[in-house]
Automatic annotation (TrEMBL):
UniProt-recorded name of the protein: Type II secretion system protein
Keyword tRNA processing: no
Species of provenance: Anaerobaca lacustris
PROSITE patterns referenced in this protein's UniProt entry, alphabetically: PROKAR_NTER_METHYL
Pfam families: N_methyl (PF07963)
Gene Ontology cellular component terms for the protein in this record: type II protein secretion system complex
GO biological process, one term: protein secretion by the type II secretion system
InterPro entries for this protein: Bac_GSPG_pilin, N_methyl_site, Pilin-like, Pre_pil_HX9DG_C
Keyword Lipid biosynthesis part of the UniProt annotation: no
Keyword entries, A-Z: Membrane, Methylation, Transmembrane, Transmembrane helix
Length: 251
């Protein structure tokens, strides 16, 4: 009796079609899993930031590092690849891979910021002797210098992320330096990243943030720009009167 060998062309085409169908089903799930892994890696990086900040505060009479020089001693431009950071917090974070979010690194390719070695930024309203960038909040308005001056350490951020692009109605400045100066509803400046776990739109995702007490959260995009400012402003009283929905005394 003659035995059958191999497959017919139709059978091969059926197998190929089944494999293609399975790949079409699995690829989105695999892509989402890779994206979530990048977010988790970034969150782990920022947990190290929280630990390093705690050590720095304990060693420096609870004074915050300077948002201009926390990683780069001269100026406040971002740290480029090939440069060795020499700022005050570098001694507590001497591992370059902990300073780069893999998601940011992927998104920054082909942009002005593709040469950065650090993708995280520091809240400019803490440290610097309380001085505010450009005095944009008004003459005489100051932030804080020490941890003990922060009204609620579990509700005020120290480190976060920015997008390498701007979003109309949300931000007017992309990632471009070492500090984070978030605006509010009456004036847009910097704003939190939106590229983590986006619902199909990179402008609608979130950012990892480190609070003064050291804990890390994923912050979903806040369309209420006053609420975004409240997260960064370290004092109980706001330095301006919100246009709606929030008292000047904070939440």
């Amino acid at each position: 009796m003659r035995t059958r060998e191999g497959f017919t062309l139709i059978e091969l085409l059926v197998v190929i079609a089944i494999i293609a169908l399975l790949m079409a089903i699995l690829m989105p799930a695999l892509s989402k899993a890779r994206d979530q892994a990048r977010t988790l890696r970034c969150r782990a990086n920022l947990k190290q930031y929280g630990i390093a900040l705690r050590m720095y505060l304990d060693d420096n009479s609870y004074k915050f590092p300077d948002a201009w020089t926390w990683l780069k001693s001269e100026g406040h431009q971002y740290v480029r690849k090939g440069e060795i950071p020499d700022g005050v917090l570098w001694a507590y974070l001497k591992a370059l891979d902990v300073h780069m979010c893999p998601k940011f690194n992927m998104l920054a390719k082909g942009t002005t910021w593709q040469d950065t070695a650090v993708s995280y930024v520091m809240n400019s309203y803490v440290g610097r002797g309380g001085e505010i960038w450009s005095n944009w909040l008004g003459s005489g308005v100051k932030g804080v210098t020490k941890e003990t001056e922060v009204y609620s350490p579990s509700q005020v951020i120290v480190f976060t992320e920015e997008n390498p692009w701007t979003i109309e109605g949300y931000s007017i400045a992309p990632f471009n330096d070492t500090h984070f100066t978030v605006g509010h509803a009456q004036r847009q400046i910097d704003n939190y990243a939106t590229f983590h776990n986006p619902p199909g739109d990179l402008d609608r995702g979130g950012a990892n943030i480190v609070f003064v007490d050291g804990h890390v959260e994923l912050l979903r995009r806040l369309d209420d720009l006053d609420a975004g400012f409240r997260l960064a402003w370290p004092k109980r009283e706001l330095p301006y009167t919100p246009t709606k929905g929030m008292s000047a005394g904070g939440s």
